[in-house]
Known about the structure:
Elements: E1 3-6, E2 21-24, E3 27-33, H1 47-64, E4 72-79, H2 85-95, E5 102-107, E6 117-124
Parallel strand pairs: 4-5
Antiparallel strand pairs: 1-2, 2-3, 3-6, 4-6
Helix pairs in contact: 1-2
Amino acid sequence: MSKTVIHSDNAPAAIGTYSQAIKAGNTVYMSGQIPLDPKTMELVEGFEAQTVQVFENLKAVAEAAGGSLKDIVKLNIFLTDLANFATVNEVMSRYFQQPYPARAAIGIAALPKAAQVEMDAIMVLE
């Protein structure tokens, strides 16, 4: 099976040795997105704004792959403070409707560039 690199100029450029996403067959593996503004490559400020930016970045990569957020089947959320989980749920409800993707929320000590939230996803295209 071949793999295809997915890239969107509407999402932050990779800041390391990885691709924004890889498509293998009809499955797209989306790399972790932190709340970088793709135009400035700077973190947005405030937890809610960071969460919105992460979803916008994932949306841009999903669209570059030929899909949308509704095609995400698995979402991993990494938080430096699990007390922000309710805010994640509220913001996520703006981007997803039922059936929601399978999801994990993981508390971690730190993220790149001192971000407060990061998400990666698996998307299946029909």
